[in-house]
Amino acid sequence: MEEDVYYKRTIVKELVPSTYLGENRALRIYLPPGYNELLSYPVIYCQDGEDFFNFGRIATAMNRLIYDHNADPAIIVGVDVDKSVRTSEYAPGGERFAAYCRFFAEELLPFTEHHYPVRTDSNERILAGDSLGGTVSLHLALDYPSLFKQVISLSGAFLQSTQARIAEERDLSWLSLSMLIGTEETEVSTGRGTFDFLEANRITKQLLVARSCQLEYMEKPGKHLWGFWQQELPAMLLRFL
């Protein structure tokens, strides 16, 4: 395969008007090779859209999966975030968290489905996020199970509020979750303090397994950095495609 085909990509930018957020939210949308609006495609929704494209290199990863592994071509919707309000939008209990979740489920999905030929079956939608982006992705699935059943978490910030939210559920056999955590993530500095993400993910794993979640859990040597996540992301995507 000619190396340059991996780097040929179509990325469209959009603005979604949001009543809940009181602003327009920027999206970057990857259209797969051979994109045809008469067809329909699985869709991957990424928190931290800019980071997933720039540091996670998700567009190049998707091209490789399509060309080399016969993966189902998918549309990727990266939802940008203003880093100054990221914690308030992505962290449970954050002042913009409820509004962001409603935007995601009630404004972003209809917008995308109106403008692009994405499949609307919940088994054809994947949520992906890193750190707090993994947190909000899991909460979206728990709060909107009819919409989201598949989640990719790169070192999710699954702290006490998320553990308590999972504990409210009795049966999570409908949820398919791919979790990655680095063994060196024992002291992760965040805007809200320093946390042991490794231990938090291990506790979360136990809670999920006890509720029959379809869980792929991976601990690997790595730090809380895109350099670690970028290497693992393609295989995690392939699981769902």
TrEMBL record:
Q: Which Gene3D superfamilies match?
A: alpha/beta hydrolase
Q: Which domain of life is it from?
A: Bacteria
Q: Which InterPro entries match?
A: AB_hydrolase_fold, Esterase-like, Mycobacterial_A85_antigen
Q: Name one Pfam family in it.
A: Esterase
Q: What is this protein called?
A: Esterase family protein
Its lineage opens with: Bacteria, Bacillati, Bacillota, Bacilli, Bacillales
